[in-house]
Amino acid sequence: MTDASDFEKAKARAQEVLDAYGADEARWPEVDRETVRKVIAMDPLLAKRQAEEAELDSLLSFAPVEAPSYALQSRILSAQKEEGVGGVGFVKQILDLLWPYGSSAIPAGALAASIVLGMTSGAVTTIATDSWSDEQSYDVLALALGDTTLTEEWQ
Amino acid sequence: MAALAGGDPNAGRALVDAHLSHVLAVARRMLGDQAEAEDVAQDTFMRAWKAADRWKPGQAKVSTWLHRIAMNQCLDRLRKKKPEPLASDFDAPSDRLDPEAELYQQQLGRRIDGAIQALPERQRAAIVLSHYQHLSNQEASEILGVSVEALESLLSRGRRALKQSLRPEWSELKGEGDSASPDPTMSVKP
Q1: For chains A and B, what is the number of CB pairs under 8 angstroms?
Q2: CATH number of the domain residue B8 falls in
Q3: Interface confidence (ipTM) of the complex
Q4: Which of A16, A55, A74, A88 is most worth mutating to test chain B (most B CB atoms within 10 A of its CB)?
Q5: Which of B26, B46, B76, B144 is the most exposed place for a label (fewest CB within 10 A)?
Q6: pTM here?
């Protein structure tokens, strides 16, 4: 890479920066600012181009926008109250009281995981009934079905 | 933002105080209509309040985030709107007989605003964010969802188009009589 080609590249980039961001250095990308400034100082054509861009910048500054009115500000703040946007915060405040250690997603996740675990273990676990006698099985069934006539042992 | 998410009304007021002028300016320059811009500003803050608890400090600056909300609303509105003719005085730059300098500036301002409104919406958005809102190229490109190179292309084309359409005003300000002389450096790429 020669110095001449580096300079040409820098000139091309300076042209791009002027085309896109205009003449005001404050608007140039910070990473390019120093190089573009130096290249413009060395190249009269780019300096002329910067002056032209400054004219457009100046022209664009003739289109100011109105400052927000007090009425608009009040309208926005009233809308916040009317919409009850603070309600989101209220719920969050309650959650923060219940779980002040960070995100409430942690206890919510733990609760959900325990429910899933409970349901899964209930579905896959069987009660060992092989050793039960016929009478014991009958009594359990009777209890489950609401039959109050039990064997003497249960009464 | 944490206080805002917690429902603190003072945080809401502080957010409005700090950013309303920027949000309103973006909407006004994008839409060219003060009343509609005020509606966008209001909606922007409502959305910000509702989403405050989802805002993450490391992801984007509050100002960038608000700019993005406002810009997206503006682009949505522009897409729903039918194209409207430019203000009638946009093509009448020779109307300079008014002795009042203030009135002249107002007229000039309206013509420049008209030229900005006439830009394709992506170019307009790039000019508004970069030139008028002074956002960095990273912030502006992030808001528009484009690369920095694409942003620079939008800016270049937007500025070229503005030079072309504002040539009479440009000559007027420079005190040149012949505003219609063609300038080969000002070709407009749509």
Answers
A1: 131
A2: 1.10.1740.10
A3: 0.77
A4: A88
A5: B76
A6: 0.69
